[in-house]
């Protein structure tokens, strides 16, 4: 034993307080149904993402939704609208007077129920001077909450999301995005509001729509429903015709895709959305690169080639009648004719237009030379 033992250290080390997990017995939870603003598509208290390339009317689509929320008008798929409610818009790319107000007018919105949150006003830290800046996430969720409650909102639109993220948020870092969006999701739940955030598509080569939105995958991960807008497959060269297709659906089945086109209003100087009904394609279909061979294999083109191969040169009126019986619209039939390279010949009295495949020898003895289909029908 050492003659000079070390003194005993009687310092008391405080242990960290013990943590307890919050446990909820599921038998104590009262089940609830999802409360829909637009049944099957826009849900109260949930986050939604709307993706698409510039110029296809994403913002105009959200204005159309806002108009239906404020007036209770039926939804584009024919479902009944709800009781009129308020809408909050956070739009940092479009002017209120020359873009947003005319679009709301064109869509028939109740303007008294729509407010735009344009900036955040307060006092600059340290200086005490008045400060004014754009709304930011997650910094200003308390201001957003107040705005939603003030107008009894059923819909909040943030357009685009990337412009509203605080400078400290890395939009491509999953952890940053989830921390930025979590307070917004809580506000959506507390205020019972459907929140729609708008993004541009990236130029990636993935044909899976869920991976094509800008920023981290955590953005679509935080959303309960996601949508993509892309050019309509019937008119891929027409920037004014598009399809709204589901990208993600966690709380319902995937909704049917809806076609629409933009109609210009000369008096108001803007466009509004006119819906066309359901379209048989998915978001992945819309973003998948379309080769000439793929375009030639669409169902209507295949039907038309088969018909002409069986019947040979055929009067257009007969083809149109057969197509109608097969459930094919004339406009769709004409587009298929162009894709198939159909040649047309107009002859006789009264004049009759005949269609034939380019590989089929002309049977007409009229001396008229078959020509490629014109861009516009006769």
Condensed summary:
This protein is of the alpha/beta class and 378 residues long. It has ten helices and 17 strands.
Tell me about this structure.
With about 375 residues, this protein is α/β, with parallel strands linked by helices. The protein has two domains: about 260 residues, 3-Layer(aba) Sandwich (Rossmann fold), CATH 3.40.50; about 80 residues, Arc Repressor Mutant, subunit A (Orthogonal Bundle). About 25% of the residues lie in helices and about 25% in strands. It is built from ten helices and 17 strands. The strands form four sheets. Strands 5-4-8-9-3-10-11-12-13 form a nine-stranded mixed β-sheet, with helices on both faces. A four-stranded antiparallel β-sheet has the order 14-16-15-17. A hairpin with a 7-residue loop joins strand 11 and strand 12. The N and C termini lie far apart (about 115 Å). About 0% of the residues have low confidence.
Q: Would you spell out the secondary-structure blueprint of this structure?
A:
Elements lengths: L35 E3 L3 E2 L3 E6 L5 H14 L14 E6 L4 H12 L6 E3 L3 E4 L6 E4 L7 H10 L2 E7 L14 H18 L2 E7 L16 H6 L2 E7 L9 E9 L7 E9 L4 E10 L3 H5 L4 H5 L2 H13 L2 E2 H10 L4 H10 L3 E5 L4 E5 L14 E2 L6
Parallel strand pairs: 3-9, 3-10, 4-5, 4-8, 8-9
Antiparallel strand pairs: 1-2, 6-7, 10-11, 11-12, 12-13, 14-16, 15-16, 15-17
Helix pairs in contact: 1-2, 3-4
């Amino acid at each position: 034993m050492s003659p000079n033992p070390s003194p005993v250290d009687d310092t008391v080390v405080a242990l960290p307080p013990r943590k307890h997990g919050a446990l909820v017995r599921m038998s104590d939870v009262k089940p609830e149904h999802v409360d829909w603003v637009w049944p099957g598509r826009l849900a109260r208290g949930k986050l939604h993402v709307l993706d698409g390339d510039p110029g296809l009317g994403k913002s105009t689509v959200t204005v159309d939704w806002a108009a239906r929320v404020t007036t209770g008008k039926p939804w584009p798929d024919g479902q009944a609208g709800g009781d009129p409610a308020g809408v909050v818009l956070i739009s940092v790319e479009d002017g209120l007077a020359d873009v947003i107000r005319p679009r709301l007018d064109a869509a028939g919105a109740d303007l008294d129920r729509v407010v735009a949150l344009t900036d955040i006003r307060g006092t600059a830290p340290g200086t005490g001077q008045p400060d004014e800046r754009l709304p930011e996430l997650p910094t200003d969720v308390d201001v957003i909450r107040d705005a939603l409650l003030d107008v009894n909102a059923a819909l909040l639109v943030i357009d685009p999301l990337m412009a509203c993220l605080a400078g400290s948020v890395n939009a491509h870092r999953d952890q940053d995005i989830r921390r930025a969006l979590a307070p917004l999701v809580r506000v959506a739940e507390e205020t019972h509001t459907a929140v729609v955030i708008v993004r541009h598509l990236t130029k990636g080569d993935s044909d899976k729509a869920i991976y094509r939105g800008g920023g981290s995958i955590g953005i679509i991960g935080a959303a309960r429903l996601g949508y993509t807008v892309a050019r309509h497959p019937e008119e891929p060269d027409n920037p004014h015709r598009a399809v709204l297709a589901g990208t993600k659906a966690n709380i319902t089945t995937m909704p049917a895709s809806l076609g629409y086109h933009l109609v210009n209003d000369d008096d108001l100087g803007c466009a509004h959305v006119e819906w066309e009904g359901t379209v048989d394609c998915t978001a992945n279909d819309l973003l998948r690169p379309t080769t000439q061979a793929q375009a030639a294999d669409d169902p209507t083109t295949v039907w038309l080639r088969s018909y002409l191969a069986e019947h040979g040169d055929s009067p257009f009126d007969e083809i149109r009648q057969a197509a109608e019986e097969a459930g094919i619209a004339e406009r769709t039939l004409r587009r298929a004719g162009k894709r198939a390279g159909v040649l047309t010949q107009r002859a006789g009295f009264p004049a009759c237009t005949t269609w034939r495949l380019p590989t089929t020898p002309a049977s007409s003895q009229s001396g008229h030379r078959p020509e490629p289909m014109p861009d516009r029908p006769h």
